[in-house]
Structures are given as structure tokens and as C-alpha cells.
Amino acid sequence: MTDYPHTIVPVDHVEPAARRIRAVLNGEWVLDTTNAWYVWEWPHYPHYYIPFADVRQEMLVDEHDIEEYSRGAARQYGLRVGDTYRPGVVRVHTEKSIEGLPDMVRFEWDALDAWFEEDEEVFVHPRDPYTRVEALRSTRHVRVELDGTLLAETSSPVLVFETGVPVRYYLNRTEVDLGRLIPTDTITACPYKGRTSNYWSVRADGTTHEDVAWAYDFPSHVLQPIAGMVCFFNERTDLFVDDERLARPQTRWSR
Q: What's the pLDDT band for 255 if we cut at 50, 70, 90?
């Protein structure tokens, strides 16, 4: 049991995606559809499946191979756009697939340069329609420590509540001991928040802890309250909220 809600969509669940989906490679639109499906290949988020008729078929290179997957059989294709060729990144599901998937096309996400929902770029993976993300201003007292060293303290945090993720506590930069933060070259992206503008390691008690804090200077419009603020991994720091020390959650970001 955790203290935050988890996603509850079962694997292989299929739902229509009621939005325009497009993707681009090498400056060319590869697909454009208003009839995509969400398919949950694992519980945390779905993948887009695109109708074959809404894909630019002249860009597909038939590899003359049919593979069996948990959701059915699919014909393998490469993707060629100008001088760019990416083998084995497309599969077209045959009639021997679960309901709704015959003649639907699955692209490897990273095989394309950018994906868009309507006219907004989407990062990392499709946004889960069952995931809720909110940024709420608060007056709770938050203190962040590591190895007994105080890193930040505030009574005006912004709390981000995201389904399937521990509560994240964002603090004003003026309330963070920036002298203990070491900038790194790390950049990550989130389908709900956008792309990070900063990552920092932390120096505490003579030890350097890699990539413990981050910031979004230009988050998505629904997460504007966190713009420019700093957040520390709950999993790798000691977090006190209203003077109560929180247990470090065990997630995929734990080390």
C-alpha cells in the first residue's frame, strides 16, 4: 500500500483516442489521424495505434516478416523518410490480433522525431486519459535534507499530484541552498509537464549524489505553477512535511 493513487487500467485495454494525432520524421509528416486507439501495453500508460490508411504508406518498407506478439500477429516494416532509414520500427497488425487492432499500425515512439496531440507536442509517451495531474499552491511547511544537511525549506511550496507517482514538492529557488547544487547535463521529459530545463546533483556531507533535483522553467500550461521551481526526488532525500518525516517511496526512480 502506498500513500498515493495508482493507475488501474488493465494491460491490453483498448480505447479510442478522441484527438488528432500526428508524428514527424526528418521534416515530413508520417501519420495524421483522428481515429487512433489507445492500447495499454503495460499498466502505467498507453501507446498509440494508428489506422493503416492514415499512415503515409510510401514511407513504409516491407521487411517480409510476421511476428507474434501478446496482442496478435503483426507484419514488420522499416521506415524511410528521405535519407533517414529506421529498420524494424513499424508493425501492422493482421486479422490474427485482438479486437480492434487488425490493420492498426504501431510505431516505436523514439523512431519519430516528434509526436503531437492536436497542435501540442507530446513527450516520452501518450498522455494517459485516466491519469490526473494537478499543481496546487500550499502553505504546508516543507524541509528537504540529505545526510543531515539542509537543502531547502519553505512554507509556500507547490504540490504536484500525479496518478501513479508520489506527491512532488516544488520549492522557490530562493528557498534552496543553491551552493550545494551542481548543474548536470541531464535532460528528461514528461508527457504531462514537458521538458526539464535544469538538473542538479547535490553535494552533502562530502558525498555527491547524482541528479537529485530538477526544474521546469517552461512547463506545460496546466503545470504553470511550477515554472522555475526546484523539486527533489522523495526517493533519494529526506523530506519533512509539517515537521513529519516522510518515508522514502520505492519507485522506478529509487536508487
A: confident
